[in-house]
Design a protein that fits this description.
Blueprint: E1 3-7, H1 16-21, H2 28-39, E2 43-47, H3 58-65, E3 69-73, H4 79-82, H5 86-101, E4 105-109, H6 111-115, H7 117-122, E5 127-129, H8 134-150, E6 167-171, E7 174-177, H9 200-211, E8 215-218, E9 221-222, E10 241-242, H10 245-259, E11 263-266, H11 277-288, E12 293-298, H12 306-315, E13 317-325, H13 329-334, H14 341-353, E14 357-364, H15 371-384, E15 388-393, H16 401-406, H17 432-460, H18 467-474, H19 476-493
Parallel strand pairs: 1-2, 1-3, 3-4, 4-5, 8-11, 11-12, 12-13, 13-14, 14-15
Antiparallel strand pairs: 5-6, 6-7, 9-10
């Protein structure tokens, strides 16, 4: 009972938009758990589903490795896995059944299985890890191995796993949950992820083909202490713990020397929140002579601190994504966001002063949002013109205040099939078709304003004209009429939705 085959349930090919974008990242949490188990003496292997076409392909890895344990361990650092897309859930179910057919003990760890452990147990999983999983997984497989060695099963004595925290399993055909496990504080104590298990050429070639550079992902923290009421944290929770800057730089140097990356995505919910962390990180990066570009996720209020932004730029940050969410203060307050529209404007300007590109996450359709709130958000986007824009509609995740407010509407459908479905899953001010059209309109008018800005820049600075600039300015010929007609269609769909023939509009 010593062989473990790790996998995860994110199939890039099942997510058409992400497949076309061509920006895959290795399953960081998966290879992190594999590293810990390997350090403790287990024989580990990886079936990486990122480029796999069919979950049935796991059968080859099951036959070759003949594992005692099959572990579906999703990457909790990747926001796409937190969305719990039904394409991926069905693929996970299929792999669970195949592994059970071959006599494996099946263990699952993911946001979706934490929220829906009964469904996964019903599909054949023997155990679901609830929350942060590495230590729970180690305790579990060790207990099973010891039980097997003692031959307790053949003696008729059922194994007792109730002392292992953070676990769900069936006992007498009924689901049992053990008490929650505290999250880890000393992240430096974990081994570096088992990067050697990843077929890195597949990732590198995809990045180079679609983007012209090669990016890898690193996590420096776990958890988020803020309490936006639509944001779920089923794995790492609200506690915030960070690796030391020196430990992070150690991993960066290893990755640079081994895989020659061009770019890093620091996939933390919030990068460098601990006071002084980013300055120390920048100092060590400079001392080590490392040169690389990276992007982060942060908050508008944190990005107002000039010493923080200055240190980011010094370390090599070229893009900072912020959860702008809305240009309406009313909506930000309803979300318990804890930031202001003015802070979004100010932080955007400060980032640009230090040569860092600001990028926005925007969500429409939060309960209570009306036409004026939407107008203010679009105006903010087109005035600030972030470098990149991620637009979605509010997506209710279990365990959030937002989900509790709308869960009565989620009886027929509670998850998207893939990340580009953009289906509004609950009844709101306008019908779902309006919000899908709104997504199209926002992107077209944003592109039109970018082209117009470039055209003005060329007129003011003709000496700085480039071929890329000309192409960008010329795109106004497409985006101006496209935005116009998209707006006409949006206006046609702008009919407030009724909750019931006898009830007033939701507004």
């Amino acid at each position: 009972m010593n062989k473990i085959l790790f996998s995860h349930s994110y199939f890039l090919r099942f997510d058409p938009k992400q497949w076309a974008t061509g920006q895959p990242y290795p399953p960081l949490a998966t290879i992190g758990a594999a590293a810990l188990l390997r350090e403790k003496g287990y024989d580990v292997a990886l079936f990486d589903t990122m480029f796999v076409e069919d979950p049935n392909e796991v059968m080859y890895s099951l036959e070759v490795n003949r594992p005692d344990f099959f572990v579906v361990y999703d990457d909790g650092f990747n926001y796409l896995t937190k969305m719990c897309l039904t394409n991926m859930r069905e693929a996970a179910f299929r792999m669970i059944r195949l592994a059970k057919d071959r006599g494996c003990t099946v263990v699952v760890s993911s946001s979706d299985s934490t929220d829906h452990y009964e469904e996964y147990l019903g599909q054949g999983a023997d155990f679901v890890l609830l929350g942060e999983g590495e230590q729970t997984l180690l305790d579990l497989v060790t207990a099973i191995r010891d039980t097997h060695q003692q031959d307790a099963v053949s003696s008729g004595k059922p194994a007792d796993f109730s002392a292992i925290r953070g676990l769900a399993y069936l006992l007498n055909r009924l689901p049992l949950k053990t008490p929650a496990r505290m999250v880890m504080k000393d992240l430096d104590a974990l081994p570096l992820p088992a990067w050697d298990l990843v077929k890195m050429d597949d990732y590198r070639n995809t990045w180079l083909k679609h983007n012209g550079y090669f990016s890898l992902n690193i996590s420096t923290t776990r958890g988020c202490p803020f309490k936006c009421n639509w944001c779920a944290k089923p794995i790492y929770g609200n506690r915030y713990h960070a690796r030391s800057p020196r430990h992070v730089v150690k991993e960066l140097r290893m990755l640079k020397e081994t895989y020659a990356f061009d770019h890093i995505w620091f996939c933390d919910d919030i990068f460098g929140l601990r006071p002084g962390w980013v300055k120390e990180f920048a100092d060590i990066v400079e001392q080590e002579g490392l040169r690389f570009r990276f992007k982060i996720q942060s908050r508008a209020d944190l990005l107002l601190q000039e010493n923080y932004v200055r240190a980011l730029a010094r370390a090599g940050c070229d893009n900072s994504w912020m959860g702008a969410e809305s240009g309406s203060q009313k909506i930000l307050d309803a979300m318990d966001k804890g930031t202001s529209v003015e802070q979004i404007y100010q932080s955007t300007r400060l980032l640009r002063e230090y040569g860092i590109k600001p990028s926005f996450f925007i969500q429409f359709g939060y309960p209570g949002e009306n036409k004026e709130d939407i107008r203010m958000t679009i105006r903010m986007i087109n005035e600030l013109l972030p470098d990149s824009l991620g637009v979605s509609v509010s997506y209710p995740l279990p365990g959030t205040v937002f989900h509790e407010r709308v869960k009565a509407d989620l009886k027929e459908k509670a998850n998207w099939t893939d990340s580009d479905e953009l289906q509004l899953l609950f009844r709101n001010t306008y019908p779902p078709a309006f919000y899908k059209q709104l997504h199209r309109y926002v992107h077209k008018t944003y592109r039109w304003h970018l082209a117009w800005q470039q055209l003005k820049k060329m007129l003011w600075q003709p000496a700085a004209i480039t071929g890329a600039g000309i192409r960008k300015a010329a795109s106004i010929a497409w985006y101006a009429p496209a935005a116009f007609f998209a707006k006409i269609r949006l206006d046609q769909l702008e009919r407030p939705q009724m909750t019931d023939p006898g009830l007033p509009y939701i507004n």
